[in-house]
Specification:
With 264 residues, this protein is of the alpha/beta class. The chain has helices at residues 97-110, 130-143, 184-192, 213-224, 242-254; strands spanning 5-6, 27-31, 36-37, 46-58, 61-66, 71-72, 79-87, 116-122, 149-154, 172-175, 205-209, 229-235.
Length: 264
């Protein structure tokens, strides 16, 4: 499978994978907020992380907006339900115990859907929201069945300079290595110096986009040097197609590191 990245163990990256995460393929396609027909994928090779719900923290409430766009997958597909969380900019959330419970119950329910291996939370928590987010993650973990996977997305800075997530009870933190924003130069300089993530949770998976070629040229060879499986989450700004998936596989293959040739 050309997209399976076998990656040398860095001092920070543990080779151990959570038992909850082992049933997923090494490649998952993010199916975001648009219609997606993925009926053509091979379930043994490709999984689907689909946006299931958008939660908005507003005042003392949690507003739930479930997915409305159609999503087609073949029988036997293994899936992760992704829940995006945002704070309302006009009505600042209370970040209360009640909101933790409302959000946690909503998230955990998606783990019970057919073919769903687990859930992934996508929340760019501000510093003032971190205590709330950590408590929410712990509550979701308590609500999930033991065999269900709990994944979170992570800003690159959380895995490098500000690793406040290191003790959270999650199976993986997926570094989002696209749309890097104001930290872009600082983050890329770190990896151009041939350094890895400082947090083991961030070494087990990688979120990359077809549209970020310069970042991919850094991150894919870096992952290959770890000598442990790295699950790839693939993002595209437009709908997936067989041709686009092949383009993504070619991207991975084109950056594969080859062992040095030996002379006889």
């Amino acid at each position: 499978m050309i997209y399976t990245i076998l990656v040398a163990i860095s001092p920070h990256c543990s080779p151990a994978l959570s038992a909850n995460a082992t049933s997923l393929p090494d490649l998952l396609l993010w199916a975001w907020q648009r219609p997606e027909d993925l009926s053509w994928i091979s379930p043994s090779e490709v999984g689907v992380a689909y946006l299931a719900c958008h939660l908005i923290l507003l005042g003392d409430r949690v507003v739930t907006q479930r997915r409305q766009q159609p999503l087609k997958v073949p029988p036997g597909s293994r899936m992760i339900a992704v829940v995006r969380i945002d704070s309302d900019s006009k009505h600042k959330p209370d970040l209360s115990v009640s909101q933790i419970e409302q959000a946690a119950q909503a998230i955990a329910r998606f783990s019970e859907f057919p073919r769903t291996v687990g859930v992934q939370i996508d929340f760019d928590a501000a510093e003032s929201e971190r205590e709330f987010y950590a408590s929410l993650i712990r509550r979701v973990r308590n609500l999930l069945a033991p065999e269900k996977m709990l994944s979170i997305t992570a800003l690159a800075s959380w895995c490098l300079f500000d690793n406040w997530i290191k003790d959270l009870p999650v199976d993986e933190a997926v570094p989002m290595m696209f749309s890097l924003g104001q930290d872009r130069s600082k983050v890329l300089l770190h990896f151009k110096s041939h350094r890895d993530f400082s947090l083991p949770l961030c070494c087990r998976s990688l979120g990359i986009s077809l549209e970020e070629q310069d970042v991919n040229a850094l991150m894919i060879p870096l992952a290959q040097r770890r000598k442990m499986p790295v699950r790839i989450y693939a993002y595209s700004r437009s709908a997936w197609s067989p041709a686009k998936l092949e383009q993504f596989k070619h991207l991975i293959k084109s950056h594969e590191t080859k062992p040095p040739r030996t002379s006889h």
